[in-house]
Automatic annotation (TrEMBL):
Keywords: Hydrolase, Signal
Record protein name field: Alpha/beta hydrolase
Signal peptide range: 1-34
Species the sequence originates in: Asticcacaulis currens
Pfam families on file: DLH (PF01738)
Residue span(s) of domain Dienelactone hydrolase: 187-301
Length: 325
């Protein structure tokens, strides 16, 4: 499957703006968040329910996992071993549906709270078994000052024009999937684990979806289109790139949410939506007037805060939240 165009565009989008997104996302958030944008190192939180996936340690990793707080939330970086943390609904609420949640962070950090745990808790409260995927990340400097400097350097480099893409069929062109091969492997392992324990967790093996945020949305799309045996039943793309892709005939229903003032991905066309439409596959697109990037589960005075309720209604419409007898 040829996804080179969409992932090359996503790569350009990330290289131009992720430094800004990670260092100053709060400029599009609430004023209270903007005043709390300093990265403060914290101890690695206890994660007693996290299950280590069988993908092994990140090859060649030298920096070790570390965490920091920012915007009143917590983030992980230098993740070298992938884990999956279950958030299971109470038996009386359980619908049998499940969602693997992929936080964002430019494949350099993971927004574990705002785009991970808080999403999973809200899904479990609606009767959906949720699993937060802490996938392996690209290495960054171990110390916080070095990390911040590396992000500033990456953002400064965004001012340089991107090199032209190689001509079709040109030799030596990099397979864009190779850039996130470890993360795709982690997502595949997550689906395999959930399916292997579906009876124990009271999950319908054919109703396991995936929702991702920013880079996590890119991983969700890659897992859907190139994840081989993963095969999500439905997917959510929350403020990810909207570049066109080649859509298979059996592509799952797709839910998309993006703010019109998103500094990263709101300045292109809606190729992803159109790709799903041309393939005659179900797609729902919410384009909010305001919300910026990274709104996740933050409560903001914008309609983008309603994305989660819309996502749940969409799952309900497709029958994923109807209990099976």
């Amino acid at each position: 499957m040829n996804l080179t165009g969409s992932f090359r565009q996503a790569k350009r989008d990330l290289s131009k703006t992720l430094g800004l997104a990670l260092l100053a996302v709060a400029t599009t958030a609430l004023p209270a968040l903007a005043q709390n944008d300093k990265m403060v190192p914290i101890a690695i939180p206890a994660q007693p329910d996290a299950i280590v996936l069988n993908t092994g340690p990140l090859p060649g990793a030298t920096a070790t996992e570390s965490w920091h707080s920012q915007y009143g939330s917590v983030f992980a970086r230098n993740v070298t071993v992938a884990t999956l943390t279950p958030f299971l609904p109470s038996p009386e609420k359980a619908t049998g549906a499940a969602v693997i949640v992929a936080p964002g962070g430019g494949f350099r950090t993971l927004s574990m709270q705002n785009e991970g745990w808080d999403v999973a808790k809200a899904l479990a409260d609606r009767g959906v078994a949720a699993f937060v995927l802490k996938y392996r990340l690209n290495q960054t400097p171990q110390d916080m000052a070095g990390f911040e400097a590396s992000m500033r350097e990456m953002f400064a480099g965004a001012a340089r024009p991107a090199p032209p893409p190689p001509a079709p069929g040109a030799g030596g062109a990099e397979n864009p999937m190779m850039r996130i091969a470890p993360q795709i492997a982690d997502a595949r392992a997550a689906f395999a684990l959930v399916r292997s324990r579906s009876k124990e967790w009271h999950i319908d093996a054919d109703r396991i979806g995936m929702v991702g945020f920013s880079a996590g949305a890119m991983l969700t799309m890659a897992t859907t289109l190139a994840g081989e045996d993963a095969k999500p039943a439905f997917i959510g793309d929350i403020y990810g790139p909207l570049a066109a892709v080649n859509v298979p005939a059996d592509a799952p229903p797709l839910f998309i949410a993006l703010a019109a003032d998103d500094p990263l991905f709101a300045h292109g066309d809606f190729g992803l939506v159109q790709s799903w439409q041309k393939a005659k596959r179900p797609v729902e697109f919410h384009y909010y007037e305001q919300g910026g990037h990274g709104f996740g589960m933050y409560q903001k005075d914008t309609t983008s805060t309603g994305w989660f309720d819309a996502f749940v209604r969409w799952m309900t419409m497709h029958g994923y939240l109807s209990k099976r007898k």
